[in-house]
Amino acid sequence: MTSHDAHDLLLQELRRIASVVDPIPEALANAGRESLTWLRVDAELAELLSDSIVDDERLALVRSSGGVRAVTFEADGFTIELDILGDGAHRTLVGQLVPAGAAEIEVQTGGAPIVVTADAHGRFRAENVPEGRMRLRITGHPAAAGPAETSWITI
Amino acid sequence: MLRGGVSVELAELVRAAGDGDQAAWNSIVERYGGLVWATVRAHRLNTVDGAEVVQTTWLRLVEHLDRIRDPERLGGWLATTARNECLRQIRHSAREVPSELADLERGDSGTLDQDLLTAERDRAFWKAFTELGERCQALLRVLMAETEPSYQEVSAALDMPIGAIGPTRRRCLERLGQDPRLAAFNLGEAQ
Q1: Are A134 and A107 in contact (CB under 8 A)?
Q2: Which of B17, B49, B109, B157 is the most buried (most CB within 10 A)?
Q3: pTM for this structure?
Q4: Which chain B residues touch A69 with a CB distance below 8 Å?
Q5: Could you tell me the fold of the domain covering A34-154?
Q6: For B187, phi and psi rounded to 5 degrees?
């Protein structure tokens, strides 16, 4: 037997043992299948463009908890700049639409959505947003052809 | 390397899932679930953070189903996405002031339920694996994904040059095979 074959056997053994000690949790497999529910029906994707948590390592290291995390989403025709404040169970979102314009913003979370409006300067604020995964749905922005939904992020 | 038929099939699955076809989507989750999970474990995320990353990774794919240009590279795309989300999650968790409960939940890192390993042989084997260097553990954890990943997928999962995978794999498995604890079980030897 060559060492190549022996190595393949070792790896096969590891794969078999991993499937016993460290399998994909069943609940997670279910959640994976269910995520198709979130397929966008009528909205454009506002893609996550930057996130200070990963882009600004220096900041992430210097700041302890409670610092401001800044993320940017890019939709077709406009961008969404979002500051995420606070820690604990709830966050405050302070946002700016660029170019400025009024719009309706729905904060979608695991629970009931939170609806706020952006003023004519494109500014909006949402309080008491539960920690966890969320995305924004923006409708009525003058520079957009239709509704946009951001990528999901965990706040 | 994927053959033409496979990439056509993948392209079809991606297209159908993008149209809301649940069966097509399930096939994708089934095919790549192991790779995503192995990528998370290779980054040493515990079950709570790991679950967060896996779910975000699937949501990223749902978001991008209409934007996947090279369906034959879907595995690599998922592995890259999972890796990026791992790094984001690690930083995110580091910012949090963990509550006592979260501490308890997160305390499982690295201590998998070894009691599940009934055979002493398997126990020795897994112990030897968990005592390899970090680089070896990361690479082997991805390579032992439920469905054997391509080197392109492994490269994406670990941000490791494709050319480094073969030699590292050889070195790590050699070391594992030479572990004295495995000698008693004739592992790494001809069977």
Answers
A1: yes
A2: B157
A3: 0.87
A4: 95
A5: Immunoglobulin-like (2.60.40)
A6: -85, 145
